[in-house]
Design goal:
Layout lengths: L1 H6 L15 E7 L4 H7 L5 H22 L5 E7 L5 E6 L2 H8 L4 E6 L10 H4 L2 H5 L14 E6 L42 E6 L2 H5 L5 H4 L9 H10 L4 E5 L2 E6 L7 E6 L1 E2 L2 E2 L1 H14 L3 E4 L10 H4 L2 H11 L3 E5 L18 E7 L2 E2 L2 E5 L4 E4 L12 E5 L10 H6 L8 H4 L3 E6 L1 H4 L5 H11 L3 E6 L19 E3 L3 H13 L1 E3 L5 E4 L2 E4 L6 E2 L5 E2 L24 E4 L3 E4 L15 E4 L2 H18 L5 H10 L12 E4 L2 E4 L2 H4 L6 H4 L4 E2 L4 H10 L5 H8 L19 E7 L1 E10 L4 E8 L4 E6 L2 E4 L4 E10 L6 E9 L4 E12 L4
Parallel strand pairs: 5-9, 5-12, 6-9, 12-13, 13-14, 14-27, 18-19, 19-20, 20-21, 26-30, 33-40
Antiparallel strand pairs: 1-3, 1-4, 2-3, 7-8, 10-11, 14-26, 15-25, 16-17, 16-24, 18-24, 22-23, 28-29, 30-31, 32-34, 34-38, 35-37, 35-39, 36-38, 39-40
Length: 802
């Protein structure tokens, strides 16, 4: 299997016997390559190794000369080290027929064009072409910026975090972090790319959940999550992603030149706020520029206790210290008000699906084909394989649920399953995590099956199947569509002969599974992922949603390749791998953290508010074709709103040069806290050390954010925004797309603003018609060189003044 998997680096389709022209094929032999032998013969000399390599190459030549007619082929290469095989250029299909039917040949595969690939999100976001060259190239993109990761630690042995010979230590005296050593984390782990590493576990230990054997008492990542997020944000450039011997492309962080500071406060089981708060404290003290936090509370309290929660306050003070905090919005979508990152001083990130897809196809013997999921190799050759249902090839006294879920090799009758495609069923056991696709794969490999097919249980219905992005070493497909599952069973039952007792005695149904590891690029706009948490924000003490737009911005979060820890106990689907394909707002967050590092490098004096403003006002609401961005919701696509994607999908090139920004200071955040309806002003002073104004006319909607949210518009509401020009002198005109039921006026309607100048905008929202729901609009400030977009979200409670 290892040889087969390694070989599959070079192909994606099976042989086509219709010859329009001469073709190149690769032939794998049954004999062992030199690498396999030298691992057993450790003391083989260099001379002996060379001799053996030449013997393998000669055997290929002898094999071809003895079986094929002279002139019908040309041998191009002999594979001798990792593979035992050869590449051959042939001019007739007769040659292929001979090879396939000759003893000693393992498999024959058509050669295909190989293209240079990446984890795709850097290309999808335009970094290599438009951003990195402006920042000193790949190695310099993010240089001088430190990103702190409060996560599960880091795997320092991963190539994404190794230091190249050309890179040195951070050329700055600002960062003062230290490097804790310990189990699996020697002093050499802090190598110049990783410039600080500490871990926090006192809270976890006190709560009785820390397991020193499993969780590791050092900054080492025993889970995988922390390594994944760190490599997305700041991993090295052009790191090959090879999983089960297959090359999925080259990975790169958003800011390959940025430095990484690790603050391990999360573990396989999660973490505790006490540890996270301590980690935030240390990170800010150390001097990080950006904090990436792909975690949040399990539930969000309502009223004043939400914003005055200890972690929220700690993050407020981090912002005050000039550290940009980027946090995952949560994975509670598509339900509304499911965001767990809610404070206005935090940049909350939604997750999107990119235009890269991994689809697996099964072709039935009757010509029907169905698409499913599963990153697996194809069935060998172009032949069809007999299909057998798990229940039909197991001992009759086996429990039906155990049989159908294919979790145990014991009930299977080995002669009946050998080299067949086995149908398994996605039962309730999978939903409760008592069963897994990973175990199915292990079972099938042990019993000698050719592959497996997972169909949906009609009693479960169209659920989101867990583990479908698992990389597999055996051909497999998950038919996560009830119609496809039913069609497969119909074909199978019609082609299976049974005796009077209903026992299968002959299997005539056949199929082959195509390669599921080749990515497809659709070119479509990003789509809001179904799991990504939605706004509106938390409710205040009066049970109204707070006047803050959440999430803030959207970034890729679905099916992201990035670093992992091979010995991780955190995710059974990727155990033993150095890379993982994972989805979640946890993956979207480091995209924004890395992009923020690029903006910080370009504009080192900008604070967190300016960077967030730049990302929001330049975000995309439409795709390249001009069509609105869509969102997954209850098995359908609908037009996305700011509660789905915030200001929109990140546009890195435009965020580097926003034109205008909205500044917010600590004083403004305090005014916001004092204005939250129903809040205890004494609690605010106790929490932040600053008293609320005696006569506070400030409303939450007045917080100078790059958005306007009004949760209860009655009559008219005046909202003030201040803008600052961070570019050259320019004239802007104001254009308004009004929310339904609202009339919006802005003064001034046009204005000139000098370099580093500021302007005051007065917006008046007038309720025209009660909507009893949020409606959305947009304020667009158009200049000659810049377009600044500000999303509007308004709930009209009454059209008349109170």
């Amino acid at each position: 299997m290892a040889l087969f998997s390694t070989f599959l680096l070079c192909f994606s389709t099976v042989i086509n016997l219709v010859f329009a022209e001469a073709k190149v094929y690769m032939v794998l032999m049954e004999d062992k390559p030199t690498f396999s032998l030298t691992t057993k013969q450790k003391y083989m000399s260099d001379k002996d190794y060379t001799v053996h390599k030449e013997q393998i190459s000669s055997s290929h030549t002898i094999f071809l000369e003895s079986h094929l007619q002279k002139g019908s082929y040309t041998k191009l290469y002999s594979y001798t080290h990792l593979l035992n095989g050869f590449a051959i250029h042939v001019t007739s299909k007769e040659v292929l027929s001979i090879l396939r039917n000759t003893t000693g040949v393992r498999s024959v595969h058509e050669d295909v064009k190989i293209e240079k690939l990446t984890t795709h999100t850097p290309d999808f976001l335009g970094l290599p072409a438009h951003i990195w060259p402006r920042l000193g190239g790949v190695e310099g993109a993010g240089e001088g910026v430190v990103i702190g990761f409060i996560d599960t630690g880091i795997n320092p042995n991963h190539p994404s975090f190794m230091t190249s010979s050309s890179s040195g230590f951070l050329n700055s005296t600002k960062f003062k972090g230290k490097c804790d050593t310990g189990e699996l984390f020697p002093s050499t782990a802090c190598n110049g790319k990783i410039i600080g590493a500490q871990y926090f576990a006192h809270g976890a230990i006190a709560n009785g959940e820390f397991n020193a054997t499993r969780d590791v008492s050092s900054p080492y990542d025993a889970d995988g999550h922390g390594s994944h997020t760190a490599s997305i944000a700041a991993g090295n450039h052009d790191i090959r992603v090879i999983v089960d011997g297959f090359d999925y492309g080259a990975a790169s962080g958003m800011a390959p030149g940025a430095r990484i500071a690790v603050y391990k406060a999360l573990y396989t089981f999660g973490g505790y706020m006490s540890d996270v708060v301590a980690a935030v404290d240390q990170a800010v003290e150390d001097g990080v520029d950006i904090l990436s936090l792909s975690a949040g509370p399990s539930s969000v309290p309502s009223g004043d206790s939400a914003f005055l929660d200890v972690l929220e306050l700690q993050l407020l003070f981090a912002t005050k210290a000039g550290v940009l905090v980027v946090q995952a919005a949560g994975n509670g979508g598509p339900s509304s008000s499911s965001v767990i990152s809610f404070s206005p001083w935090i940049t909350s990130v939604a997750a999107s699906i990119t235009d890269r897809k991994y689809n697996t196809t099964i072709v039935l013997g009757n010509g029907q084909s169905f698409t499913g999921t599963g990153l697996s190799p194809p069935t060998d050759g172009e032949i069809d394989y007999n299909i057998a249902a798990a229940a039909d090839v197991c001992v009759r006294n086996a429990t039906i649920i155990t049989v159908d879920s294919c979790q145990n090799p014991e009930p299977f009758i080995r002669p009946l399953v050998y080299r067949r495609l086995i149908i398994c069923t996605y039962t309730f056991e999978y939903e409760y995590e008592a069963a897994s696709i990973a175990t199915v794969a292990d079972t099938m490999m042990e019993i000698g099956a050719a592959g497996f097919i997972i169909t949906l249980d009609p009693n479960i219905g169209p659920e989101v199947v867990k583990g479908t992005m698992l990389t597999l070493q055996i051909p497999a497909i998950v038919l996560n569509d009830m119609q496809a599952s039913s069609a497969l069973w119909e074909y199978y039952n019609a082609n299976t002969i049974r005796d009077k007792r209903g026992q299968a005695v002959a299997f005539a149904a056949k199929a082959r599974i195509l390669d599921g590891r080749q990515a497809l690029y659709t070119g479509q706009a990003p789509v809001v992922a179904s799991y990504s948490s939605r706004g509106p924000d938390v409710k205040n003490a009066l049970m109204q949603t707070v006047d803050v737009l959440k999430p803030n911005v959207m970034a890729p979060g679905t099916s992201i390749w990035a670093a992992w820890s091979p010995d991780s106990e955190g995710d059974k689907y990727v155990k033993g791998q150095s890379f993982a394909l994972i989805s979640g707002t946890s993956m979207a967050t480091p995209h924004i953290a890395g992009i923020a590092a690029l903006i910080k490098q370009r504009h080192p004096k900008w604070g967190p508010d300016a960077i967030t403003s730049a990302m929001m006002t330049t975000a995309d609401r439409t795709g390249h074709s001009g069509a609105p961005i869509l969102a997954e919701s209850s098995n359908e696509l609908i037009q996305a709103t700011p509660f789905d994607f915030g200001a929109g999908s990140i546009n890195v090139s435009q965020a580097m040069k926003p034109g205008l920004i909205f500044n917010v200071t600590f004083k403004h955040y305090v005014q916001f806290l004092c204005a939250v309806p129903g809040i205890d002003v004494k609690s605010v002073k106790k929490a932040v050390g600053v008293a609320c104004p005696t006569k506070n006319k400030f409303k939450c909607s007045d917080l100078n954010l790059a958005s306007v949210t009004i949760s209860n518009l009655v009559g008219k509401r005046k909202v003030i925004r201040y803008i600052k020009n961070v570019s050259h002198k320019e004239k802007y005109t104001v254009h308004i797309k009004e929310p339904l039921g609202v009339n919006v006026t802005v003064v001034p309607e046009s204005f000139r603003i000098k370099r580093r100048g500021s302007r005051r905008l007065r917006l008046v929202f007038e309720a025209i018609e009660a909507t009893n729901a949020y409606t959305f609009g947009e304020m667009v400030l158009k200049g000659k060189k810049h377009i600044v977009r500000v999303p509007l979200a308004v709930y009209v409670g009454s059209a008349s003044s109170s």
